[in-house]
Write a structure and sequence with these properties.
By secondary structure, this protein is an alpha+beta fold. 25% of the residues lie in helices and 20% in strands. The longest helix is centred in the middle third of the chain and has 9 residues. It binds zinc ion. One of its GO terms (molecular function) is zinc ion binding. Part of the 50S ribosomal subunit. Forms a cluster with proteins L3 and L14.
Length: 61
């Protein structure tokens, strides 16, 4: 069990007890650091590469 996981959307580390774990119907486990990332991915179907506020985190990965 990983203690620190990274956000599926923005790539930032998530501490234990924080964030949202979302399981899709096909069984894919996705973790989001905030409701901002969760809504952007699930509700609005946004591409992280097109958002200015995730560009920095994606460049490091
Ligand atoms: Zn995030």
């Amino acid at each position: 069990m990983p203690r620190v996981v990274t956000c599926t959307f923005c790539g930032q580390p998530i501490k234990p007890g924080q964030g949202i774990m979302y399981v899709r119907l096909d069984g894919t486990v996705e973790r989001y650091c905030s409701s901002k990332c969760f809504k952007s991915a699930v509700k609005y179907h946004r591409n992280p590469r097109r958002l200015a506020w995730v560009r920095k985190a994606k460049a490091q990965a």
